């Protein structure tokens, strides 16, 4: 049997040379909003688009690839993520405006996109300030809030396929639906073009202020959380069903259903990813039992449990 150290180095040795950074066993708990989760087997931070294209073109087909933004609507399981985790950095965070259009790299923060639009007098993108995370992540799940979503302001997007080929996607290729797009999960969004309308920067700022005040009044914005946990069912609100089922303030280990907004799960300080996920499943069970509704997860849950070979290996070599 191959020694553990050799098995550990095997993946990174099989990967193509890059100009960016490849790191083995990188902690992901530090970069997710829940502050939980195991390591990436290999973490790749590409230097730029060409570096990412080259990596994809020469990466072995059997290597799993996961794209990670700022981890705002994500739960990484305690065993970590096998394969390569890609995090897009500054080279993918550029924002520029042109008329009533905003061009943003996938790593640009939603808030920064909204602020750039305000600065250019572009109205209609204020809702983005109420969505934590990056524009690439928001695009992947057709994120929405405060009366709008990405599909309503979408003009075009660019994405790389698994072989590193660049594609420009129009709206009809996106397959937008509620909190979902039909684009292959293997494709990596690189940038997006959004369109708004001409507006008064002062009036746009007032709307941004309203959204900020609303978030702070109704959501646990300073807690270790993953944002909205469950998708609103047709004709209803997830939080109302959770409240009706008596789950407000429910706890499991270090995980808790927020008292302030019960569609948010919170890491109170020492929760594990397993506890957070199990608490979410408890909530789903109670809502089904009391209300007869199957809640669907909105938070993306990825990775393997703590007893996986990846987690055991990481612990033995720490």
Notes on the protein architecture:
With 318 residues, this protein is an alpha+beta fold. It has 3 domains: 4-90 and 305-317, Uridine Diphospho-n-acetylenolpyruvylglucosamine Reductase, domain 2, CATH 3.30.43.10; 91-203, Uridine Diphospho-n-acetylenolpyruvylglucosamine Reductase, domain 3 (2-Layer Sandwich); 222-302, Alpha-Beta Complex (Uridine Diphospho-n-acetylenolpyruvylglucosamine Reductase, domain 1), CATH 3.90.78.10. Helix content is 31%, strand content 25%. It has helices at 4-14, 49-58, 110-119, 135-140, 150-153, 171-174, 201-218, 238-244, 273-291, 309-317; strands at 21-27, 39-45, 65-68, 74-76, 81-87, 95-98, 101-105, 122-123, 144-145, 148-149, 154-160, 166-169, 188-195, 197-198, 224-228, 251-252, 255-257, 264-267, 300-302. A 5-stranded antiparallel beta sheet has the order 6-7-13-11-12. The radius of gyration is 20 Å and the shape is globular.
